[in-house]
Amino acid sequence: MKQGYRNLSQVSDSDEETVLELQSSDAESSSDDESVSSENYIATESAASLPEGTSSTWKATMNLINFIEGVGLLALPYSIKKGGITAVISLFLLPIITWYAGKVLAESLYDGDEKKGKIRARSTWKEIGDAIYPKYAGKIVAWNQDIGFVFIAVSYLILCGSLTSHALPTVPLSQTSWTCFAALLILPTMFLKSYSQIAWLSTISIVAIGLTTALTVWYGLENIGNWDPSTLLFWDFEGVFISLGIALSSYGVAKIIPSVEKSMKNKSDFGKALASAFAVSVVIKVIIAVFGFLTFGSKTDEAIVNNFPVGPLNITASISLVISSLLSIILCLRPVCESLDESTFFSEITSDISNTICNIIIRVSLVVITLAIAIFLPHFALIAALMGSFQTVFFGFCIPLLVHLKVKYHELSRLQICADVILLVLSSAFSVLGNYFSIKALVQAKLNRF
């Protein structure tokens, strides 16, 4: 057993009372199928009976990379088109800030320290919210979490429809039809039971992203004679906020940090897993963004693969990314399923129905809702920008920094407190402006469609 952690068998009577006082979960809290290991921390009463985490460090890293390399990846060249050099710089700075926020979020899941022993006091976003402001904040955070996950899944479906319709123009199916077909394909993955199983899908997804990255580099090098680096050096005030929103969306990982960290066998390795995931992510994103924009310039599409000429290259890259998107949607909708499974309101409605039928209803309904939104708002990059400006800032910065200040304040140095406060103020200000310009662009795109 690692120093600084204690298991349940070593807890004294007074410690047991402390554990009970530290509980912030209630009947609505999610009970993930892969709980934290009792060898590494003292579990709260609601988690004590759950099985130990089963995911290895590499599996956790795969799930983190798969989630990071998600919705915003193909829109990154478009983000440079909108934001210029600011977008390029953000690809290097944002992962550092996001890693810090993710690290303090993971720390805030526990009470205590290395000397006295760490106690896992929070496992769900509702419990994290309750730590900031009991009852009300937890519910607000939980609702926003589920809405954000659904919209990320929406972006994946839009991407599937857009890529397939561009890659196979001779097939008499519209983008909407391809989007519906993609929704049917993801239904089987909705019934996977553990993050360990999902990790294998994540591995396939990452390989598919790697293939697309290689094809983008190859095509870019084939057309390097057309590159003009000076096209990166411009500034557009509104465009900067849209581009930063897309970049933030592409680095958003906070939502699955509690679940992935909980699922790990060796939770002390989570920081390494998160750092490794960001390191891989930066390389992929910079290559896709810079090569894509320099190759196509002002003609850069919302999804860069759509710029490839019709033929084997376009088909290979598009199908690879469609596979990656299909295998990634489960990471978005699974936490929503868990929330609904544990919801008291939903349980009362379905009290006369068997658990199996309830599970089917929840999962099929989520896919249908996701599909309906994707058909109504088929604007991949703009939705990614909106999610980055609101959801990623809210969950990736505001909530982690607030809960860190609340539960760890007396353990923090003045420098740490100042860093948290400054990042909190700056991220909040950006969120307001980013939301305004993203919604404005989305409304204009919707009006232009009619």
Automatic annotation (TrEMBL):
Cell compartment(s), UniProt: Cytoplasmic vesicle membrane
Residue segments, region Disordered: 1-38
Keywords from the named record: Cytoplasmic vesicle, Membrane, Neurotransmitter transport, Transmembrane, Transmembrane helix, Transport
Signal peptide span: none
Membrane topology according to the record: Multi-pass membrane protein
Primary localization: membrane
Membrane spanning residue stretches: 64-80, 86-106, 147-169, 175-192, 199-221, 233-254, 274-295, 315-336, 357-377, 383-405, 417-439
Coiled-coil portions: none
Domain Amino acid transporter transmembrane stretches: 54-439
Superkingdom assignment: Eukaryota
Biased amino acid composition, Polar residues: 1-12
InterPro entries to which the protein is assigned, alphabetical: AA_transpt_TM
Keyword Transmembrane helix recorded: yes
The family this protein is said to belong to: Belongs to the amino acid/polyamine transporter 2 family.
Protein name in the entry: Amino acid transporter transmembrane domain-containing protein
UniProt organism field: Porites lobata
Lineage: Eukaryota, Metazoa, Cnidaria, Anthozoa, Hexacorallia
